[in-house]
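Figure 6 in text form: structure in, sequence out.
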């Protein structure tokens, strides 16, 4: 899309709602319809036994697939499957190894040691006595990378507790899968935004733990290079915009505005925490508390409305949606950056997460006077091109002096 999203003739509409509606119609809709067409071509060859759209990033794709599924693929059943990193990673746990330890300490900035263990679901009575044996791991001490080894050692001590918790949640999740009819052998297609295929692999591990022989194919907006090594003959990954390092140079571009892409796939639904079984044996979902602002929820709803309204005519869109997406992500107008800047991403997993802003910045005077805070805001911004777009020439000059490497490539 060559034209900026923020220009509109709908003067009677709330400016923010108007912007996000147009973002849905002019950026999200071409991306989603292109992905659905690409996925259909892949599925004609693969012919899976079922297609699983993972919540919440698979929400909009599931709706579009139901509307635009080709006739020759209409006989393949689909399910919208409740899933999350927290729910599937723990339910698939069989051993506290290095990969699980890395998962536990991922995106933990801003959390205390106590919160790190709470967010996986451990009771304080289980982990506090273990923490007390290590003078470096005070429960209310802020997490930092230099504590990684001590946390890993503590997790190994807590392995019996973690495996009991994992077994309980795995049994409940398997009952949920049974209720959705996902108890077959064969070939499963898994649909999500990307980028590491971790949910696909965790889901495959859960299903295979029940003796199900199956193959999985993941269909994603993109797959990062470090995920490609996780492929096997039984678990394959496919990326629409990005597959590993192909096309050449695209990963370094996408990595700079990945939060914008993730927002286009976002849903107003709550995130799954885990499943639990009631006394009657029926599994029920436990969700994370709401953390998104009203601004963000309204933005998501308007964007989805715009996308679904204009995706009815895929022929109106270009074959390649990436140039428009790249322009928005790397070279936004000040209007686009201003509407997108207040958005936040939840970092981490479970019900103890911290929100990090896309491109928050203070006033021009405040940035120039409180330059240390200004520099810190830039470092913390998830979407630095958007942060840069909102600055005055004087602010940009100062930031280049403060962060010559971080601002490299910015004009």
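Output sequence:
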């Amino acid at each position: 899309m060559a034209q900026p999203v923020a220009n509109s003739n709908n003067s009677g509409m709330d400016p923010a709602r108007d912007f996000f509606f147009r973002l849905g119609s002019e950026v999200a809709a071409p991306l989603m319809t292109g992905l659905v067409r690409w996925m259909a071509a892949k599925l004609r060859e693969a012919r899976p036994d079922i297609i699983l759209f993972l919540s919440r990033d698979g929400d909009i794709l599931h709706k579009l697939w139901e509307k635009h599924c080709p006739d020759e693929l209409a006989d393949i059943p689909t399910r919208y499957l409740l899933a999350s990193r927290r729910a599937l990673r723990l339910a698939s746990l069989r051993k506290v190894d290095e990969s699980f330890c890395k998962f536990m300490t991922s995106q933990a900035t801003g959390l205390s040691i106590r919160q790190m263990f709470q967010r996986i679901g451990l009771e304080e009575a289980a982990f506090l006595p273990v923490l007390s044996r290590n003078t470096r791991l005070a429960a209310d001490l802020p997490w930092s990378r230099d504590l990684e080894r001590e946390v890993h050692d503590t997790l190994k001590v807590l392995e019996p507790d973690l495996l009991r918790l994992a077994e309980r949640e795995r049994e409940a999740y398997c009952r949920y899968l049974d209720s959705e009819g996902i108890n077959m052998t064969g070939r499963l297609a898994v649909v999500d935004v990307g980028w590491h295929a971790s949910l696909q692999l965790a889901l495959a591990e859960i299903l295979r733990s029940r003796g199900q022989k199956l193959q999985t194919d993941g269909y994603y907006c993109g797959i990062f290079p470090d995920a490609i090594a996780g492929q096997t003959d039984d678990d394959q990954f496919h990326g629409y915009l990005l597959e590993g390092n192909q096309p050449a140079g695209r990963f370094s571009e996408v990595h700079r505005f990945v939060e914008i892409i993730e927002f286009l796939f976002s849903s107003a639904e709550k995130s799954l925490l885990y499943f639990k079984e009631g006394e009657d044996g029926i599994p029920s979902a436990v969700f994370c508390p709401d953390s998104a602002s009203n601004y963000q929820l309204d933005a998501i709803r308007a964007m989805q409305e715009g996308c679904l309204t204009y995706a009815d005519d895929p022929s109106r869109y270009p074959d390649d949606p990436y140039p428009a997406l790249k322009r928005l992500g790397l070279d936004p107008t000040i209007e686009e950056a201003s509407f997108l800047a207040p958005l936040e991403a939840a970092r981490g997993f479970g019900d103890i997460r911290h929100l990090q802003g896309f491109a928050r910045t203070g006033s021009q005077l405040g940035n120039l006077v409180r330059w240390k805070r200004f520099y810190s805001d830039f470092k913390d911004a998830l979407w630095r091109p958007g942060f840069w777009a909102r600055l005055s020439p004087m602010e940009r000059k100062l930031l280049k002096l403060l962060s010559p490497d971080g601002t490299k490539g910015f004009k």
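Caption detail: The two ends are 21 Å apart (CA to CA).
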